[in-house]
Amino acid sequence: MEDSAPTPGAGAAALPPDGARPGLGRPDARPAAAPGTAPLLRAEAINQYYGGSHILRSVSLEAAVGEVTVVLGRNGVGKTTLLKSLMGVVPVRSGRVGFDGADITRETPYQRVRRGIGYVPQGREVFSRLTVQENLAMGLAYKPGSTSLPTELFELFPVLKAMLHRRGGDLSGGQQQQLAIARALAAGPRLLVLDEPTEGIQPSIIKDIGRVIRMLADTGLPVDGKPRRMAIVLVEQYYDFAEELADRYLVMERGEIVMQGRGADMAADGVRARMSI
Ligand SMILES: Nc1ncnc2c1ncn2[C@@H]1O[C@H](COP(=O)(O)OP(=O)(O)OP(=O)(O)O)[C@@H](O)[C@H]1O
Ligand SMILES: [Mg+2]
């Protein structure tokens, strides 16, 4: 890990206190996910190994449209491996990944992106020698028949418009993170998967990223002129950020889901203490 993760409390000045969520402009009566609708993503009993090491132990996870599903866990518990398994970057040993009713367990990452899953990998993986515009175009390349970037991306991240012709490697860490998110959004996904987007990023940009994530779940980006709410899977170690955004949470320890519940119950459930053990 190249960057140090923000320690709990490190961004406390920039974030509202426990329980309060005004920082992300979240209305109290925001639309809930439609009751009774099937989750967009459903991963069931995923087992994953690296060599002889059992890394994911029967992990199941669901993500619904309009909701932010947060996966918390300390270093090395298997969070990134879980996301790579959802994306098909590593093939699962056993279990099933369903997306929008289809079994995508054996599909390639490329096929999953085309189905509507956007991936923001840990460490961002921005192409440092390509310009911002070229990086964004890479995201668009997965969308059949599309040649222009959605202008809404620049409303979400105005800094990218100002830096369109700069090289990715010349951007700050926070700007690169925004670029990686915009790149994943370029193809108009219905599910956005983010791996520790706050890692090594300054508090003001963390706040901006939080607002964007909330907005994507609540309202979404316009697709063919009509905004479409998204499902979000967010991996985090930064507790305050996670609690602020979570509609649902899951806690991983040593490759297993050991707790889960509603985001609103995270404080009462003692998730923060679990993270600091
Ligand atoms: N390519 C690999 N080959 C072998 N072992 C790996 C590989 N990638 C990760 N691991 C191991 O698998 C375990 C889970 O790693 P993973 O990266 O999924 O954890 P993580 O929860 O994302 O950690 P972090 O918070 O540091 O990003 C760790 O013990 C790690 O050392
Ligand atoms: Mg990781």
Characterize the structure shown.
The chain is an alpha/beta fold and 277 residues long. The chain is built from ten helices and twelve strands. The chain has a six-stranded mixed β-sheet with strand order 6-7-10-3-11-12, sandwiched between helices. Strands 2-1-4-5 form a four-stranded antiparallel β-sheet, covered by helices on one side. The longest helix has 16 residues. The protein is globular.
The small molecules bound here are:
adenosine-5'-triphosphate, magnesium ion
**Biggest sheet: strands side by side, in what order?**
6-7-10-3-11-12
Tally of extended strands? 12
Low-confidence stretches: 1-23, 25-30
* Main sheet record: 6 strands, mixed
pLDDT averaged residue by residue = 86
Query: What integer value in Å does the Rg equal?
Result: 18 Å
Overall 3D geometry?
globular
Query: Gap between N and C termini, in Å?
Result: 20 Å
What's the total helix number?
10
Q: What share of residues is helical? A: 25-40%
Order of helices and strands: EEEHEEHEHHHHEHEEEHEEHH
> What share of the residues does DSSP label as strand, in percent?
15-25%
Structural class: alpha/beta
State the main characteristics.
binds magnesium ion; six-stranded mixed sheet; four-stranded antiparallel sheet; 277 residues; single chain; 25% strand; disordered N terminus; alpha/beta; binds adenosine-5'-triphosphate
